[in-house]
Amino acid sequence: MEELELAAEITDLLGQQTQCVLATMDETGPCQHVMAYAYSEDLFTIYLATYMDTRKFRNMLSNPKVSMIWDNRKGGIQDHVDGYSLTVTGIAEMLEGKAQDRPRAAILSRNATLDKLLSQKKCRLFSVALNEYTLTRGYDHVFRFSRPSRTVT
Question: What global pTM score does this model have?
Fold first, then answer.
């Protein structure tokens, strides 16, 4: 698949889904969290919102390495042929001050029902800087889409 075609498909998939699963890590092991999100135009930053009194908040501060998955599984055997998963790994960073303005607007524009969450004083926004997407169709068609030049460590 051509790079432009893959970027367009990833944009479509991110646009179709309203939630992803965020994986964080604490002292006992991995934790998963269903999250609403928004994404940057270049696709390599994901924006998340959470309350400060949550496990995911504590985990992202103590260990900012995270992963995320989007998929279209329906729970049937046809998922092996027609299903897709889109996975990423990245580094989460809590946003402060004016750096929250655009991500907050982006999250609200995709998820208007999050207005109450985003207006709470205990809500914090995170950006997740990504290096590479892995798109898997069925069980044997794997495509990678990488950030040009800059690497996140």
Answer: 0.91
